[in-house]
Specification:
Blueprint: H1 6-31, H2 39-49, E1 54-55, E2 64-65, H3 108-133, H4 158-164, H5 169-190, H6 202-224, H7 235-238
Antiparallel strand pairs: 1-2
């Protein structure tokens, strides 16, 4: 057999002596009543084990919990007959009441598409009934030998026709519309606001308002303030030279 080294034997002997000393100290502490459990809890536990009644001294009503006659452990007792147990320790702040922030967005279907579909049906029905009741304002057949005076474009092109009276055709017909379209293409990159509320989209709202008012003024001037020879007139003096 292999002999055990002497230093290991000494270490084992020292460990045994230390364990025996700790066991003796704990026994003396229990005998002397040096325990962390309060005395009234120890008495209550001993009374519960003995099968007696346990009086709840914390409550002013003096309610007593009686143990069953056939057993020595109360019904509410835990393992080993103990009536007090520590379930868990919860750190402060570990339980949080997290509330989701409201989002001002809805799904496209069915919230948006359903409304748009109903609106399109209503517009189609209105146009059908209107065209059935009211005849289209068609004029007589065109006379190739006589040009109407003033000769105006359809109302949706009157703004462009009005620009032709102010600038060169290259500027009014090509340059300005191109600049406007390029500005519209770059508008989403200039304003990157995610919100859909008008008060949060001041830049885009201002741009659209300026464009709308500028084009509306051109259409109104060309429709009601241009007379024979496409000259500037006042409608309340010379009449209105405008036809759909």
């Amino acid at each position: 057999m292999t002999e055990i080294p002497e230093h290991l034997l000494k270490r084992a002997q020292a460990a045994r002596e230390k364990a025996a000393a700790e066991a003796g100290a704990s026994t003396e502490g229990e005998a002397s009543g040096d325990s962390r459990i309060p005395a009234h809890l120890l008495e209550r536990s001993k009374a519960a084990k003995a099968g007696g009644s346990v009086a709840v001294a914390d409550k002013p009503t003096g309610v007593a919990v009686a143990a069953p006659a056939e057993g020595n452990i109360p019904m509410a007792a835990g393992p080993g007959g103990h009536t007090q147990r520590l379930l868990t320790v919860v750190k402060s702040g570990s339980i949080q009441d997290v509330k989701s922030e409201p989002v001002d967005k809805v799904h496209t279907w069915p919230h948006l598409l359903a409304v748009e579909f109903v609106a399109s049906l209503a517009c189609t029905a209105f146009l059908f009934l209107f065209s059935w009741v009211v005849n289209a304002p068609l004029l007589q057949a065109a006379n190739f030998n006589q040009t109407p005076n003033p000769s105006k474009a359809p109302w949706y092109f009157l703004g462009l026709q009005e620009l032709l009276t102010m600038f060169h055709p290259m500027i009014a017909g090509v340059t300005l519309p191109t600049v406007g379209l390029v500005a519209l293409m770059f508008a989403p990159f200039l304003d990157k606001t995610v919100s859909n509320k008008p008060e949060d989209r001041k830049f885009m709202t201002s741009m659209f308002t300026i464009f709308l008012m500028f084009w509306a003024v051109l259409v109104i001037v060309s429709s009601f303030f241009r007379g024979p020879g496409y000259n500037f007139t006042f409608p309340w003096r010379d009449g209105i030279f405008f036809e759909l």
